[in-house]
Design brief:
This protein has two domains: about 190 residues, 3-Layer(aba) Sandwich (D-Maltodextrin-Binding Protein, domain 2), CATH 3.40.190.150; about 100 residues, D-Maltodextrin-Binding Protein, domain 2 (3-Layer(aba) Sandwich). Strands 1, 2, 3, 4, 5, 6, 7, 8, 9, 10 and 11 form an eleven-stranded mixed β-sheet that branches. The chain contains ten helices and eleven strands. The protein is globular. Helix 3 runs parallel beside helix 10. Strand 2, helix 1 and strand 3 form a beta-alpha-beta unit. By secondary structure, the protein is α/β, with parallel strands linked by helices. Belongs to the UPF0065 (bug) family. It holds the Pfam family TctC. Keywords: Receptor, Signal. This is Tripartite-type tricarboxylate transporter, receptor component TctC.
Length: about 325
């Protein structure tokens, strides 16, 4: 596995031994923070995490060092966070897989999502988007795509960043409900899915919108529907699933920043407040939208409540899809 480290700003400071005073709310961070990204460079989580960390660095004057630890549906990076020292200097953007979906895909996980993570704040939320190659697919709208897909004797292929991701589960539900013969093709991330789709090696994707906005706007990919309840602000001509005749298909992906469990409460509160401060301004909201997501923020308790609320919903989606990773 290749690990890529991206240093945002100044070089790493000398090792620091935390003292009682260093735990005070107003003093975090006073040295560089390691940010473990459980997905590859170029994907939605990586792009949006970098955007947030650039702002946190400007706000605090400290470096936020991105360390990509992809693999196993986000489990490798999530496990690395769970096993990090609870000193407030390791954090990670955790998506739905780490918070609850992977619990239903694997008989055993190397971490306990209900015990090993300390939520900080929500980070982003976005729908999935149904996309095809503009060069290799004849359809120009959803109805034409559906007719084309059903006419393929060998079925169609759809890509995702891995088994059990929202892209995979969305694709499985979509092909099942619309009676399309579909073959799931897992990749390591959108950075690999997009070239395969644009070259015609892959028929389509129903993946997180953030990574696909550039190729859609450039005209290299055609977008037929988004899975949000409303049209996406930067793609106003792309209808929702409900508008193209697929009801009850509202699926959004989201991410929340987290520390390992055991980080002192003042540091958690300080980090949560900082994320709100850098995310809330309209200019930053616009930057998130241009990157393909809505920038969101919350209290740690609100993250915990959302995880508990959505857990049984995704358990049922996983059951319907038949996905398992043991």
């Amino acid at each position: 596995m290749t690990t890529r480290r991206i240093l945002l700003g100044t070089s790493l400071a000398a090792p620091f031994i935390a003292t009682t005073g260093a735990l005070a709310q107003g003093q975090w961070p006073n040295r560089p923070v390691r940010v473990i990204v459980p997905w590859p460079p170029g994907g939605s989580t990586d792009v949006l995490c970098r955007l947030l960390c650039e702002q946190l660095q400007q706000k605090t004057g400290q470096s936020f060092v991105l360390e990509n630890r992809p693999g196993a549906g986000g489990n490798i990076g999530a496990d690395a966070l769970a096993k990090s020292a609870p000193d407030g200097y390791s954090m990670a953007p955790l998506t739905l897989g780490a918070w609850h979906i992977n619990s239903f895909l694997y008989s055993r996980l190397p971490y306990d999502p209900q015990r090993d993570f300390q939520p900080i704040s929500m980070h982003w939320e976005l729908p999935n988007v149904l996309v095809v190659s503009a060069q290799h697919n004849p359809a120009n709208n959803f109805r034409e795509f559906l007719a084309w897909a059903r006419a393929q004797r060998q079925g169609i292929s759809y890509g995702s960043p891995g088994v059990g991701t929202t892209a995979h589960l969305s694709g499985a539900l979509f092909t099942t409900r619309l009676q399309i013969e579909g073959t799931h093709v897992p990749f390591r991330g959108a950075a690999q899915i997009i070239p395969a789709m644009l070259s015609g090696d892959l028929n389509c994707a129903l993946d997180n919108l953030a990574s696909y906005v550039p190729v859609i706007q450039e005209g290299r990919a055609k977008a037929f529907a988004v899975t949000g309840a409303e049209r996406w602000p930067t793609l106003p001509d792309v209808p929702t699933m409900a508008e193209v005749g697929v009801p009850d298909f509202v699926i959004t992906s989201w991410c929340a920043m987290a520390f390992p469990a055991g980080v002192p409460a003042p540091i958690v509160e300080r980090a949560s407040a900082l994320i709100r401060e850098v995310t809330e301004p309209p200019a930053m909201q616009e930057r998130f939208l241009r990157a393909g997501a809505k920038g969101v923020f919350s209290t740690p308790a609100e993250v915990t409540a959302r995880v508990a609320r959505e857990r049984p919903v995704w358990q049922e989606v996983v059951r319907i899809s038949g996905a398992r990773l043991d």
